[in-house]
Design goal:
Blueprint (H helix, E strand, L loop, with lengths): L4 H20 L6 H18 L10 H14 L7 H7 L3 H9 L5
Length: 103
């Protein structure tokens, strides 16, 4: 997935400033903190580079995808829409909502 350049720069700036503010709050740096920052950064990089997958169009899978996306919405830093994109269900759900086809 390619993000348009200005949009990508905008979100990159938001993320970097947010990370700077959070890292500034750490009073005592030690190996555990540094390790957590490195591991968290690696996981975030891995998640953002996941390719969309081909998934079944079955109703049960749409339900599971929606449930996972809703759970992701309560986690800071990850979007339910992004989860749906990764699971290959975003376009179908967006179309159903646009057409008000909830079944």
């Amino acid at each position: 997935m390619i993000i348009p350049f200005p949009c990508g720069l905008f979100f990159t700036g938001l993320i970097l400033v947010s990370a700077f503010i959070i890292l500034k709050e750490i009073k005592r740096w030690h190996l555990g903190v540094v390790l957590a920052v490195v591991i968290g950064t690696a996981i975030a990089w891995w998640v953002t580079n996941l390719p969309p997958t081909t998934t079944p169009d079955a109703l049960w899978f749409t339900f599971i995808s929606g449930a996972i996306a809703i759970c992701a919405m309560i986690l800071p830093g990850i979007s339910g829409s992004f989860i749906l994109l990764i699971m290959g269900q975003y376009e179908g759900i967006l179309q159903a909502v646009t057409e008000r086809n909830f079944f």
